[in-house]
Amino acid sequence: MPQHIPAWPNCLQPQTFSEPRSGLVRDFRYLQNNANLTPTWNQKSIITCLATQWPVALTDCLNQLKQIMIPYMEVIALQSGSSGNCIYVEAGGMRLLFDAGISGIQAESRLADHGRNIRDIDALIISHDHRDHAVGMGIYQRKYGLPIYVTRATLAVAQQKIRLGKMNDIRHFDAGSTFSVGDVQIQTIPTPHDAADGVVFVVDDGIHKVGILTDLGHAFDELDEILPQLDAVFIESNHDLEMLAGSFYPESLKARIRSSQGHISNLDAAELLQRAASPKLQWACLAHLSEESNTPELAIETHRRLLGDRFPVYCASRDSATPPLRL
Ligand SMILES: [Zn+2]
Ligand SMILES: [Zn+2]
To answer: CB of 36 within 8 A of CB of 324?
Structure first.
């Protein structure tokens, strides 16, 4: 995984401490989230550093630190791409799984590798009816007892195309609505992707918002409103335009991918982040990379070229899980 070593943040200059408390929370969150990137940065050294340089602020800082150490969000992309999608989000005490595009056994073992039990998942949430997102939903429900959150149209079309089998615990939501799992809010945003009733998601635990934005069709207008709110994002970065043009795919498939209902390119995704990501975005994880028309190196290079070092850029794998990404 690429490492991004943070520079000492500008917001942590001494004058910060004359700002309202929200400024301190932001500064500490920055430090907390970047502290694990180098072995020398840890909470103790943050406190020591603050104590040395700004002793007046120490008590206030420690109180703030205590408050923000408790809530966190953790995300693991178990797999992402046309061969299967499944993203795990732990937030607000809830354990959520977005999409069931890999086998139950794979999901179970990749979660177990990170100390999680698939049977503890509180909600399996399905984005759209395509096989790489929906194929395992019946198995996950029957074998592990997971409640499935899905729109009526997505379920109906998925059942026509895929043998999902009998499912017991279905909880419908409408595309465009926001629903809750525990105290966590899941905002759903309809997409122009070529599915029956596809959506993307913003997960909000009241402190952080993470976007799960794949199978977008194109960089549609609403994304420019969503991106600035996010603290972290999984974003589709499906193909490199030149690699796609030179790939062995039939022209009809190339046209589908490039169309306004297909998948967005590395350049589309990087331009979207460039114009719409706010300074509070802590990381982006590129997702749904094409096997034939992209490479992780090329995707990251395209993003780096447009975005510089504004935030760390990671890449979800087509055949394995990412390390846990924290907020
Ligand atoms: Zn897909
Ligand atoms: Zn799709």
So the answer is: no
